[in-house]
Amino acid sequence: MKRHVLRLFIWVALLASVLPAQAISIYSIRAAIEDELYDLAEEQIWEKLSTDCTLEERTDLTILLARAMIGEGRFQDAIILCNESNHLLQPDAFLYWKANAQVEGGQISAALQTLEIFPENSPYLPAALRLRGRAAVSDGELKTAEEVFQRFDKLFPNSEDAAQNLLDLAHVSLERGRGRNAQNAFAQLLKRFPDTIEADSGRLLLARELIADGRVKAQEKAADLLRKLGSTETAHPRMRIAAWVELSGIEKAAGRVDASVEALQKAEAFTKETDLRIRQKAAQANLLFDENKPDEAFALFDEAIASAPDQEIAAEVLVQKAEALLELKKLPEAETAFQACLDVTEQTEIQQRALSGKAWSLWGQNRFEESATVFEQTVAKSTGSNEQIEAYIKAGDAWLKAKKYEQAYEDYRRASEIDLRHPLAAQAAYQSGIALLKNGASDKAFRYFQTVEINFPESEFARQAALRRAEILQSQNNPEGTLEEYVRIVEQYTNAPVRSAAMHREGLVLFEMNRYDEALAVFNAVLKDYPDSTQAPQAFYMRGFCRYLQGNAAEALQIFREFIETYPGSNWAPEVLFLLAEHAYNTGDYPQAHRAFLDITDRFPRHELADAALFWAGSALLKQDSFLEAFTLFSRLVGDYPDSALLMDTRFAQGEALTELGEFSRAILAYDEIIKTAPDTLTADRARGRLGDCLFTLGATEPERYQEALETYQALYKKTDIPFELKLQALCKIARCEEKTGQTDAALEHYTEAVYSIGEHKEARSPTAVLWFTRAALEAADLLERQQKWREAVHLYERIIQAEVPAADEADKLIRKIRQEHPKEF
């Protein structure tokens, strides 16, 4: 087996080693998520995860990562992350956030299925029940929603969401036509939470339900509720207005005109001016939106816009409608609404909101270049430095997404220069360096990262900048400079995660420079000083590579075995297991190699080495003549890894196994597929040879197959780009087919051509080439003996002796035999 695993390990180690985390707290990450700074939060999470976190911290960070992904709209990524976090704590938390991602991503049925099995003792149960209820409403499963809301009320009557839950329960009951249940829910809401906004909403909704009832007692009860709501000083003005308007309708229907007029006058007291009435109507629309009634809300927004006395008032409402559309992720509609607002308003504040909203709408549609341009326009309408810096940074982010790195750099640079004392200035300066680096300006990026360290020495981005500088030096093939940089980082940034990461990277660079003694010392120091660090597992097994290249293979293998025992779940475990399995294969311990390779695939089916491990497990079975079992493994590889780079090699191995099992027709199909799929590869050339072998074997019972085999070998021989040994083999097999088809002279000609060609390719005398030279010489000599051409046969045997190949002694015996039996010929 030929693999350069060691070199692969070196590069994987160098590229995959992580940046050390800064002094970032989980609290600050959570705050960033709450402020919807998802990009920043995710970067900080990955950075924090690179440290020697406890299992509890790693769990909290992974939960926050899922939340950040959901916030970014990467719902499927969040679902996958939650699915693959079963090795962490709080499985119920991951179950909840998986369902949350499914709901946000529109996978409502899947979310309901996820939440159906939620553990009863989970602290996430209240939130899970609320989420399940809302999902059921979205899916039209109103009965399920009602049952879930009822269960929530029973289990968590004092929850902070209890009032909203009762309001939702009442809504669902009304939708189902269960008026009595709805009234019971309203009654509980008013009794238990009388002074809440939910209670005010409940009073209004209950009153409307009673009005719809039509009976006198119901009307009287509704009127009492509305009077109380309208007279409640703490109630929201739009609620009070609605109460007086509804009461006016009741009084009018009852024929009490004066009372009806009085109620309307009280409503008008809150809306004396037309502008205020329009704004209050917009406020009512926002309330409906908050109550998860978007259709009613948008209808009211449109009504307010239509009745606005001028364009500026209309723009005030229109921007609110657009923001609601953006919140619902109706991005094209939001974009259109924001643009319509920009078309009619001259108010700077409204323009700034509309531009920002439009930019976010474009971002959500992955139209990053347009988004960046609009974020830049937002800066001109922003009156404060905070808004300007945020807009420039977001414009830079958008340009970065669009791979327009020069424009990204300019916007980040502008953001960093507005106010060096601003909390985001360091981030903007650091991102400037990132944009330069992505644009290929590594020298300028190096200087920029240096500036970040100088101007913002206490910032979390200073250490990141230092590490970026080291990476740039390494990419420029400057190992000495890279080492100096890591030493500086260790001296300047003294916290443990930074020191362990820098020391470890120093060891990796020393290893790449073939300074194995020094590298070993550094890796040992990492293990001694920071045994619980993130870098410890890699440092552990890198010691094995050092010992191997120092000439101590036995100790290296022992280190690898100890690594697996110490870190069985490490990300590096599959590579180390592969190395051990490879060693067993190369030393002929095929049973152990088979078990070890198969163990890798079974334990790490998604790892990049899984397909290779399965391939070599099958190859180890071939070496043990377990052909049927080998074929089964190769078939599994084809099914499980259809995009594997080893697919053609696997098909070839299937053909080999089938050939050994005597399934020549099936083997032919395997070889044919290789030739058709990858005709210009060496594997295809080998397949042509093996295809000819199968046809030749079938010729024993189907003589016409010999001609097919001959044509196959001839096609292989005519190729100019195949190895000499393969060409020699094809020539010998052409001759063999010609013998079978009675073309004796042609066979002799091709046998001797194979014999003579070895002299023209002395540099290509591989063991395989020598084998086919010997076979050709023996077959040609035997053919001559059968023709009683004794002297010519002896000449060919003498060529075997002159070539000093392993068959020389046998050739000498055959010569003596001929001379003894036919002395007159000599």
TrEMBL record:
Residues 537-651 form the Outer membrane lipoprotein BamD-like domain. Pfam families: TPR_16, TPR_6, YfiO. TPR repeats lie at residues 389-422, 500-533, 537-570, 648-681. Transmembrane segments: none annotated. Keywords: Repeat, Signal, TPR repeat. It comes from the Bacteria. SMART domains: TPR. Residues 1-23 form the signal peptide. The keyword Repeat applies. PANTHER family: CELLULOSE SYNTHASE OPERON PROTEIN C, TPR REPEAT-CONTAINING PROTEIN MJ0798. This is Tetratricopeptide repeat protein. It comes from Tichowtungia aerotolerans. The lineage of its organism: Bacteria, Pseudomonadati, Kiritimatiellota, Tichowtungiia, Tichowtungiales.
